[in-house]
C-alpha cells in the first residue's frame, strides 16, 4: 500500500517510515506541513494518508484541516490522523466525512503495539473506521448541549449578548453591577469551552452556540 505521510518531526517521521516499511507499506512521500500534504496527495494518489495534527506554520490544527479538505474533495480517500491530543473542532468533521468510512483517529501515546497499529491502518484502507476510545469520549462530551452547563442567570446574560448588548447595558437590564456581568460572561466562556485566544472573538462564538441551541431570549 502506497502511503503519504505528514509529520513535521524529523525523527518521528523517519521512525514511522521504517515502521511502515516493516509491515508492507511504501511511503511514497513524507512531508512536514499541511500544504505539502495536499500537494503530495495530488501528485502521488496514495492508498492511505497518515497525518499529524499540529504542523507548521502555527502548530495548531493544520494537519487535521488538510485532512478534512482532502476528504471533502475525495470522500473515499483513506486518512488516519495520528496525534498527541484530541482536536475537537475538526475531529468530528473528519470522522463524519465519507459516511465515516476509510478514516481513523489515533493518539500517539496510546499506540503501544506496532502490529496492532499496522492492522488498524489496513482496516481503514479496507473501508473501516478506527478511533481511539479517548477520542470517542471527548467527542461525545462535546456533543452534549453545552448550554445545559449554564445557570439560568448565565443564560439570561448570553441571550442579551446575542441581542448585541454591551456588559454595561446588560447590567442595567438585569439590575446588577458591571462586575457581576463581567463575572457571568467569564463563566459563560469557560463553560462553553472557549479559552482565551488572539484570533477568535469568543463572544461571537458564544452567541453562535446560543443560537444553535434554539434558546428564547429572556423577557424584560
UniProtKB/TrEMBL annotation:
PROSITE patterns: HTH_LUXR_2, RESPONSE_REGULATORY
UniProt modified residues of type 4-aspartylphosphate: 52
Annotated Response regulatory domain residues: 2-123
Bilayer-crossing regions: none
Location of the HTH luxR-type domain: 143-214
InterPro entries for the chain: CheY-like_superfamily (IPR011006), NreC/VraR/RcsB-like_REC (IPR058245), Sig_transdc_resp-reg_receiver (IPR001789), Tscrpt_reg_LuxR_C (IPR000792), WalR-like (IPR039420), WH-like_DNA-bd_sf (IPR036388)
Keywords carried by this UniProt record: DNA-binding, Phosphoprotein, Transcription, Transcription regulation
PANTHER family: TRANSCRIPTIONAL REGULATORY PROTEIN NARL-RELATED, TWO-COMPONENT RESPONSE REGULATOR
The protein, known as: Response regulator transcription factor
Top-level taxonomy: Bacteria, Bacillati, Actinomycetota, Actinomycetes, Micromonosporales
Amino acid at each position: 500500500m502506497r502511503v503519504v505521510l505528514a509529520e513535521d518531526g524529523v525523527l518521528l517521521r523517519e521512525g514511522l517510515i521504517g515502521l511502515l516499511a516493516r509491515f508492507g507499506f511504501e511511503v511514497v512521500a513524507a512531508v512536514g506541513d499541511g500544504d505539502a500534504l495536499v500537494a503530495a496527495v495530488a501528485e502521488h494518489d496514495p492508498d492511505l494518508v497518515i497525518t499529524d495534527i499540529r504542523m507548521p506554520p502555527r502548530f495548531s490544527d493544520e494537519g487535521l484541516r488538510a485532512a478534512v479538505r482532502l476528504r471533502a474533495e475525495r470522500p473515499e480517500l483513506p486518512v488516519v490522523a495520528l496525534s498527541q491530543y484530541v482536536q475537537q473542532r475538526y475531529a468530528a468533521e473528519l470522522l463524519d466525512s465519507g459516511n465515516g468510512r476509510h478514516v481513523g483517529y489515533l493518539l500517539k501515546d496510546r499506540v503501544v503495539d506496532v502490529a496492532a497499529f499496522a492492522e488498524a491502518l489496513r482496516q481503514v484502507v479496507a473501508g473501516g473506521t478506527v478511533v481511539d476510545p479517548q477520542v470517542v469520549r471527548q467527542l461525545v462530551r462535546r456533543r452534549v448541549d453545552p448550554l445545559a452547563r449554564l445557570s439560568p442567570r448565565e443564560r439570561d446574560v448570553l441571550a442579551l449578548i446575542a441581542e448585541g448588548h454591551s456588559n454595561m447595558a446588560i447590567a442595567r437590564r438585569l439590575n446588577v453591577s458591571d462586575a457581576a456581568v463581567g463575572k457571568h460572561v467569564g463563566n459563560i466562556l469557560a463553560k462553553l469551552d472557549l479559552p482565551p485566544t488572539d484570533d477568535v472573538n469568543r463572544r461571537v462564538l458564544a452567541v453562535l452556540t446560543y443560537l444553535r441551541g434554539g434558546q428564547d431570549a429572556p423577557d424584560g
